[in-house]
Backbone:
């Protein structure tokens, strides 16, 4: 009877240890996944025609992507509560000032209140056109599942590239130059 209890104890300890080892292995594999869901934001749109959209800008004017003829467009999805969006805000404004005669810029605020969005624009002195995706339809059409994400659209209306996360100045310059050259 003593030997039987010892075997049961060893069996239970071994079984529990194997389960813990397997769970740790699966957890480790999950952590090593090459890309997060957010990193795939808009990936299926690259190489395709940019979905047309229109929205009311915070300035009260209307923006319609179809009205942009013969000029590349940079579309940035953002929100005031998004820390990486704040990191890239000044870069986007600087790029707008530098390239506004060659490239149209538009910001699309998502999942944000109008007051918070306007405060964000004021805080960073953003002057390029910005509006809110009040229905979520623009966000869905562009496949946005995480922000910030920036789309680079050719003058022919094709999404050439996209950038997920806060974009650095050198990366923005490179992508804009690829659009205009």
Residues:
């Amino acid at each position: 009877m003593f030997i039987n209890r010892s075997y049961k104890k060893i069996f239970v300890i071994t079984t529990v240890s194997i389960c813990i080892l397997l769970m740790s292995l699966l957890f480790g594999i999950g952590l090593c996944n090459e890309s997060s869901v957010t990193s795939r934001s808009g990936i299926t749109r690259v190489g395709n025609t940019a979905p047309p959209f229109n929205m009311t800008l915070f300035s009260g004017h209307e923006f319609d992507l179809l009205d942009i003829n013969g000029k590349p467009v940079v579309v940035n999805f953002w929100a005031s509560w998004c820390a990486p969006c704040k990191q890239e805000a000044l870069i986007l404004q600087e790029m707008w000032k530098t390239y506004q005669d060659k490239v149209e810029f538009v910001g699309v605020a998502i999942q944000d209140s109008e007051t918070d969005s306007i405060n964000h624009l004021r805080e960073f002195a953003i002057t390029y056109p910005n509006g809110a995706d009040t229905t979520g339809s623009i966000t869905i059409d562009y496949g946005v599942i995480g922000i910030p994400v920036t789309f680079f659209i050719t003058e022919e209306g094709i999404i050439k590239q996209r950038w997920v996360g806060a974009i650095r100045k050198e990366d923005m310059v490179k992508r804009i130059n690829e659009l205009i050259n």
